[in-house]
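Aim 2, interim progress: modelling of the magnesium ion-bound target.
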Amino acid sequence: MWLVTRRRSARKSIRRGNQRPPAAPRVRAPRPPAAPRSAPPALRADAALFLDVDGTLLDLTNDPAATRADAHMVALLSEIAERLHGALALVSGRSIARLDDLFAPLRLAVAGQHGIERRGADGRLHAGPPIDACLEAARLELEALTRTLPGLRLEDKGRSLALHFRQTPQWQTEAQAAVSSLVRRLGPEYHVQPGSMVFEIKARGHTKGTAIAAFCAEPPFVGRTPVFLGDDLTDLDGFNWVDAHGGLSVAVGDRVQARWHLPDPRAVRDWLQGLVAADAASAPQPL
Ligand SMILES: [Mg+2]
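Predicted structure of the complex, ligand included:
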């Protein structure tokens, strides 16, 4: 119908004395093919493995404080760390103290609060004071906000403040406005880090990318192929760093894109299990 109308219109135009020929029909350029969403190649024993936690290793829950790592996951991480000669680190927005609780009794190399604090494979802690005093006013205001808007939850990590709205998505606009206003008052040294149903106030200069770079300059990570698995916006700096250094970036789920893809934490667990299974298969069999 559209084509017929257009032809009639063109004929009328010519009869009226307008000799300009009708415009050629537009040809829509073919869309480029969607980026491939392939599972990463098998984890190799010469990798330096970096793992986000929530939404990557463990399913997201409405209440992050209620998240638990089961005994099988703890045992699997312990075994992978051994296979990689210690070149395994958790890289998370949570604090190191919380991550140690979550995976007890395991104490891995770890970067917490998006790289603000870091513990190397040798156990040395690289971090400033546990509390950022500049955040005190913001802390009090956000606590008051959680009383005004029930369901918002403040996670005080000491040197960063995360305002979660997963249980009450209707407060997203209010949560974003509050943290944005506080960051403006804190000045240019701070910024808002958006995540999965959370807005976080943190100092600039620390990201998961800077944390992975610091690990990769130290034994036992140095000289190995960096591999990073993550699931949301806070992981993009890590993806960019490993991609730029010959490594593998792996997006878990559909919130962000990376070079490789796994659908969910269950698939991550299976993929990690592959290294253990391959190692067991290649081990000499008892006679
Ligand atoms: Mg995550």
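The CA atoms of residues 120 and 218 lie 8 Å apart. Residues 265-282 form the longest helix (18 residues).
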